[in-house]
Write a structure and sequence with these properties.
Helix 2 packs antiparallel against helix 3. This protein has eight helices and no strands. It has helices at about 1-10, 15-25, 35-45, 55-60, 70-85, 85-95, 100-110, 115. Helices cover about 70% and strands about 0% of the residues. The protein is mainly α.
Length: about 120
């Protein structure tokens, strides 16, 4: 209910993006909504590269919100890919982040145990 209330009345980019991230994390365990959650988190990762809205606009709420850093958002995206069985995409995310336990897990899911051991 709290998330739905925030989602209805957003006027600030940071508030809305934080709402979308929290909703996606919450919905990732729902089989019917898991794909939408992954797409939303991928969209949030892509938004970190955007120049709009400006830093001035983004910074207004930075201390008031549990806004995740890019590392955290990418980690969540990789974990959601693993839940959906898209281990190769998860590998593409986990390797640059140097999340070796998750890389090993993804290699095992893909069936490349030799790489997981090495």
């Amino acid at each position: 209910a709290f998330l739905e209330r925030i989602g209805k009345d957003w006027k600030n980019w940071m508030v809305h993006t934080c709402y979308l991230y929290l909703r996606s994390v919450y919905e990732s365990d729902n089989k019917r909504k898991a794909e939408r959650a992954v797409l939303q988190i991928q969209s949030i990762v892509d938004q970190y590269k955007d120049e709009e809205p400006s830093v001035d606009n983004r910074i207004n709420w930075v201390l008031a919100l549990p806004f995740p850093i890019l590392y955290q958002v990418k980690k969540e995206l990789g974990n959601q890919y693993l839940k959906l069985g898209v281990a190769n995409s998860a590998l593409d995310i986990f390797k640059p982040l140097e999340m070796w336990n998750e890389v090993i897990q993804a290699y095992i899911i893909v069936g490349e145990k030799s790489k997981a051991i090495a």
